[in-house]
Design goal:
This protein is mainly alpha-helical. The termini are far apart.
């Protein structure tokens, strides 16, 4: 059994995720696949970004 995911981009992302997608594009110079999938769920995408920043700062 496999699961198919929708990969969003700056044009197709849900309105609530567009700012997060733009942040990813600015920070990485591209949209990582995980971020493209997380755009489906803006709250999860934001939580992931917060955790990533926290982990990066803890190093």
């Amino acid at each position: 059994m496999s699961t198919e995911f929708t990969y969003y981009n700056a044009e197709t992302a849900p309105e609530e995720s567009k700012a997060l997608v733009e942040q990813s594009l600015k920070g990485f110079g591209m949209l990582p696949n995980l971020h493209a999938v997380l755009a489906e769920a803006p709250a999860t995408y934001e939580a992931y970004n917060c955790l990533s920043r926290t982990q990066h700062l803890a190093r």
